[in-house]
Every structure is written in C-alpha cells, then in structure tokens.
Amino acid sequence: MLFNAFLKLTLLALACTNVHSQVLQPKCSSIFTRKNVNNVSGNEWNMIKNVLNQMQKDGHIARLAGLHDRLNYYIHGNPMFLPFHRRLTQDFEEIGRKYDPNFFIPFWNAANDFRAPEKNVLFSPSNLGGNGNPMGGDCVKNGVLQGWTMSYPNLHCLRRKFMGASDQLPTWYSPEFITSIIQTSNSYDNFRNNLESSLHAVVHTGIGGDMATLWSPNDFIFYLHHANIDRIWWKWQNAKQNSLMRYDGPSRASRGAANLNDILPDYGERVGDVMALGYGKMCYMYEDTNALNRLLEDNPLLAQNNTTPDSLSVVTREGEFVNFRNSVAYRRFRSLSNSTISKFFPAIAEGNFNANLFEMNDQKANLRAISQDELEVTGGTMLPVPSDVPDEFIEMHQMDKNEVNEVTARMKELANALNTEGYISPN
C-alpha cells in the first residue's frame, strides 16, 4: 500500500511537471507577426483594404458578427472571454489569408493613444475612417468602410458614434493602468475581469455605433482592438512562469469550474488548444512581446518577432529590461510612495523587470537613461480618471455589474493616487 501511495504521488508529480508538453498543440511550421497599427506600411494598408472588401462581399464579416451576437452569454463576463475572442480573431485572419497570404490583423494599442485616440492613423480617411455622420444616421463618412451595407442583424450602414465632442473620442486608460492590471492580477479570471471591464469596455463604448452592439465585429476596428486585448493577455501569460496555461473561474458553458478541456463555442475545440501562440492554429506573434524561455527553446520561430530595434536594444535574452533602474519609466514610478508602488505596481517593489510586466508607449523613450535632475524638468501629463462603464453595455454583455464597478473603482483609486502624488506620465 505504501508503494501504491508513493507511485500515485510520483505520477501526480510527473503529470504536473509535464503539463506544458501534454497540453500544447503541434508547433507551427511558420509564424507571422501582427504589427502595431502605427507600423503598417501604405502597401500593407492597401492589401488589408482589398481583403476586407472581398470578405464583406462574400459575407464573412456578417457571418462572424452574427456568431459573436448569438454566443454572447457564453463569451462575455466569464473565463471564455479571452480564449474565444483569440480564436474568433484568428478565424477572421485565417479567412483573410485565403484571399491574400500576406494578410494580417494589426493590433491597435489603444492605451498608447489615451490622450486623443481619434488621432491614430487607423481613423484616417485613407484607412478605416473616423466618426459617423450625426446628420446621416451615424453612418461612417469616410475610409474603406464608407458606403458598406451591413447585412447583420439587418440592412444598415456601418455606424460609429464617438462619445467625445466634435468627432473626438473620450480619454481613457493609459499604459500605466494596463501595467498595473498585468502586475496585480494573480489569477487568470481576475486578469480577465480586470481587462474586460476596463480598456476592452471603454473602447467599444467610446467608438459607439456598431462597436457598442453585440454585432461589433461588423466594424474591422473590432479585430484591431481584440488583437490588442489578445496581445495584453499574451504578455500576462508570459510575465510569470506559471501563467502560460492558467485558466480558472466559474464557467458558464460547463456550469462548473473552468478548465482547459472546456470547449470553445461553435468551434468545437478545447480552450487548451489556443493557449499558446506558435502552436496549433495560433501561428502568429506580436512584435513587442517576449515568449517564455521554455517556449523559445521549444519553438525557435517564436523569436522571429523580436526583430524591431526596440526589442533588440532594451530587452535581454531572459526577457528583462536592460538597465531599467536608470530609466525614465523606473524613476517616474519610484517617485511614488512605497505603499502606492506595493499596491498597484508590485513587480517594481520586488525588482522584477520582465518586459511583459510593463506596457509602454515608446519603449526606447521610456527606457532611456535619465538623471534625477533631468527628470524634474521633463514634461508630461496627469492621468485621466476612468469613467464608468455604461449600465447598458454591462447588461447587454451579461457582465456582473458589481465586478465591473469594482474594477472601475480600483482604476479610479489608481489614477487619484498617482495624480495626488505628482506622477507625470512619460507615455
């Protein structure tokens, strides 16, 4: 009996040790990079626009918008939110690559544009266009999507209704908020709720129109936004050794505890199948993230994305920032009280400078060495205090209102603490 007990413990230990190799799908034979929308060339924009027009004509955009609407209860406000939207975005991308093998979905790092989001290149008349026309049913008035007739859920123009004044979007979460979410979320579902209830929600409601509905995938901005949400999740997955395959919380699909064997609605695939980029169907990476060493050793193709000047010069092979203690970003954070740092930025308090634990607008600018004297005269702005997520959006997506409001309250507390202590954002 003692031997049997020992054997069971040994097998259990082996199972825990080998969960990485057991769960991962086969390695991708090639991996492409999802670029920051700011780094997309004119020729790439033309290619993307051509593919979008063909996908619209062939009904793919309407089909996926309908899928997103019908599955609403299962894919929002619970653990399925992140894996399902990772798969949906990849599905759209995979369809697009059948029209042009070079097609990819750029990510829009909305937090970087927190001061004036509408000024991003994606909203230019030559790309995806800006606000809708308030005198013409909020129909998008320029850009590649102008004049489109959307067929789901009924025939209508593509609509946008910016929540700011005079074709402006409201200010929203800055990179500091995302950094805090990554560093303070100690479980998967806590991270999911923090992200879904903050940046994810305010981008949808801020743009308005179709983006504020359950058929938001009608607007291609949906996919740029969710590529960014996916990128932030990937950063969190690779920020700590034990986060890659973490998946927990109460599941609506199984009505029990979420686990990696839960099935992605409509796709019939396991959640575990989409957890690791570079494996299975997830054959893409982001140009500003760093995979865990054990993944890089298993699949060297994952290192291909780390080819930008920033990633080569400021991040070590182990994924940590170079000379971080002398940087603008570190000195800014260190101007805060110890209690604020410990509460909102625990990795800084612990001396953990893994690049995935931080969200920054311009890495090179944030990480350049600076003296304390220079820091005192460097300009910047105070952080905007987050606005509440509209009840209509919360109820529509069947999210827990108390959970959403708790996240907003914590983010307001963070903004007030940083502003009160004189923190000036370098982003």
UniProtKB/TrEMBL annotation:
Residues 76-93 form the Tyrosinase copper-binding domain. SUPFAM superfamilies: Di-copper centre-containing domain. Residues 1-21 form the signal peptide. The keyword Membrane does not apply. GO terms for molecular function: metal ion binding; oxidoreductase activity. The keyword tRNA processing does not apply. Keywords: Copper, Metal-binding, Signal. This is Tyrosinase copper-binding domain-containing protein. It comes from Smittium megazygosporum.
